[in-house]
Amino acid sequence: MEEPKLKELVINRDWCKGCGICVHFCPKKVLELDDNEKAFAKRPEDCICCKLCEFRCPDLAIEIISSRGTARRAPTKGLLL
Amino acid sequence: MAIRDYIRERFFPHIWCPGCGHGMVLNGLLRAIEKIGLDKNEIVMVSGIGCSARIAGYVDFHTMHTIHGRALAFATGIKMSRPELKLIVPMGDGDALAIGGNHFIHAARRNMDMTAIVMNNRVYGMTGGQYSPLSGYGTMSTTSPYSNIDHAFDVVELSVAAGASFVGRTTTYHAKQMADILGQAIIHKGFSVVEIMSQCPTCFGRQNRLGSAIDMLEHFKENTTPIGSKAKQKNPDLIERGIFVQKKMPEYCSEYEKIIERAMVTVHHRDRRGHREYN
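Output (structure tokens, whole complex):
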């Protein structure tokens, strides 16, 4: 299957509290905190759309929009993710 | 539906501290619900008191923010009157197992179809960091400044012993596993308990010198292991995570429905007999 490509890395700056969890756990080190202690995508070209930042963000402030779409339906039984 | 559609955006940003694990539980729970594809009107979330209980304010389901420790009792009432609804009951560690300890074990024993989530950050965060029944021996807190001599409950063992038909444990670090276990717990017909080890960097972390939220998440990563792993045999101190119990058992509301039917048949017979005797 074709690798998903990043279309947009949306960070809601009003909701981000700058805990740095997304920055620390990003496997490709895409994100960094800016001078206002808010996350931003420093190297979006390296993003592999694993969405770990989106899944772990305690403030629901990150959304990864990739070429494969964001709202995929999963079956109700078995592994959900 | 995106997870944004399941929240009350007007209350965001939420009140939880930067790096709080409870936000991550909210995130995982919404993803689980989105994947199952539940409608907002099918779900009732009932919470008690504490940082954890604030979660009910942020989700756009039917919600009830009730009294300390009694979330399961209120949820029992709702489920008995409207058994078709999905009940989700997030509780803190003190809420579930100190103040609400009795409700917890009896709810597990009855096997009523609902999902109890224990958001275990091992401390009463909202009131300033007092120890809870899950803090554990040797931990520091506002009320144990020379270290705690109480031993902690093991939520999994307690729930299994109390008769819960679905028991799981995970951590906030394992975000995908969290969403997966929560989803399975919600689908499960019966009483489900999911313990989610959550970080409180502000109270528990600071008092126990565990570092930042990131350090605490690294701690969850290093000190937990999947059920039955080889790592557990080498190092018995590792905490196991996964689904411990998943069994079919008669569900309380279905059983109660049968009792109603049985009673109606008996009453019907008695009425007919009475009618004959009268004539």
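The interface with chain B takes residues 14-15, 17-21, 24-25, 52, 55-61, 63, 70-71, 73-74, 76-77, 79-81 of chain A (CB under 8 Å).
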